[in-house]
Amino acid sequence: MSISVLILTLNEESNLERCLQSVAWSDDIVVFDSYSSDRTLEIARAFGARVVQRRFDTERDHRAASLQVEFRHKWVFNPDADEITPPELRDEMLAIAANPNCEAKAFRMRFKNIFMGRWIKHGSLYPTWIVRFFRPEALRFERSINLRYVVDGRVGRLRNHLFHYSFNKGLDAWFEKHNRYSRMEALEDSDPIDFGALLARDAVARRRALKALSCRLPFRPTLRFVYMYLLRGGFLDGFPGLVYCRLLMFYEYMIVLKVKEAQRRQNGLPV
């Protein structure tokens, strides 16, 4: 097949097999691993994937290093280990890769976030457009957290979805991951608010502007819950939607607390 697949991993034994099964149509699968200590490498090699290892430092530098791999094909598909690729999405990407007249250098796609067996359509900021299919020479990254993908060329959009199972490792893993992320978010300066982009038709620009605005609002965790659960319709996702929105509220609260902690330390005050 005319598409290479790149999967970044760290202790993904609970996710990797299903992810690999969904991309078994590719003859060039690269698992870019951060020295996993579980069965991740065993699973990858059993599927015939090429394994490349590198110590993780920052997400920006790690992803940039992953693009230096020698891929067999010009187009690279980059799902996360906890994402499943349906046949419809596969066929859409293969058609693009087979088109010599394609002008785009990368494509954004949406994902369906699955929690408690249900698609969290309303409480997950759907649709979120992410770059997952690209020509590696045209892609670069900015920022070390909340990574920003920069494409040197035209960016298209795909019709079909990925399926994202971000809780497959359990709630303990989710809390551990977001504890790390909240620390990094607290240490990183916020973007300036682009008020014009708040009403932009471009969903990516609009979401970025909303995030910059939210970082400066009082009662940020509560407002996040009200926005996601009531204004975005998270209540329509049933009980899973309620739990999901409360988890997002808690994540925002961790960020707020760690910002205050950093400020107190800078002022020589006890935490």
Summarize the helix and strand pattern as letters.
EHEHEHEEHEEEEEEHHHH
- Which second-level CATH architecture of the largest domain applies? Alpha-Beta Complex
Number of strands: 11
What is the CATH first-level class name of the largest domain? Alpha Beta
Q: Tell me the structural class.
A: alpha/beta
Number of domains: 2
Helical coverage, percent range: 25-40%
> Which value, in Å, is the CA radius of gyration?
19 Å
Number of helices: 8
Shape call: globular
> Mean pLDDT across all residues, rounded?
90
Give the termini distance in whole angstroms: 56 Å
Ranges where pLDDT stays below 50 over 5 or more residues in a row are none
- Beta percentage is 15-25%
User: Looking at CATH, which topology of the largest domain would you report?
Assistant: Spore Coat Polysaccharide Biosynthesis Protein SpsA, Chain A
CATH superfamily of the largest domain: Spore Coat Polysaccharide Biosynthesis Protein SpsA, Chain A
Q: Outline the biggest β-sheet.
A: 9 strands, mixed
Helices and strands in order, then pairings?
Layout (H helix, E strand, L loop, with lengths): L2 E7 L6 H7 L6 E5 L6 H7 L3 E4 L5 H8 L8 E3 L5 E2 L2 H11 L6 E12 L2 E2 L10 E5 L4 E4 L5 E4 L2 E11 L6 H17 L15 H12 L5 H12 L6 H29 L5
Parallel strand pairs: 1-2, 1-4, 2-3, 6-11
Antiparallel strand pairs: 4-8, 5-11, 6-7, 6-8, 9-10
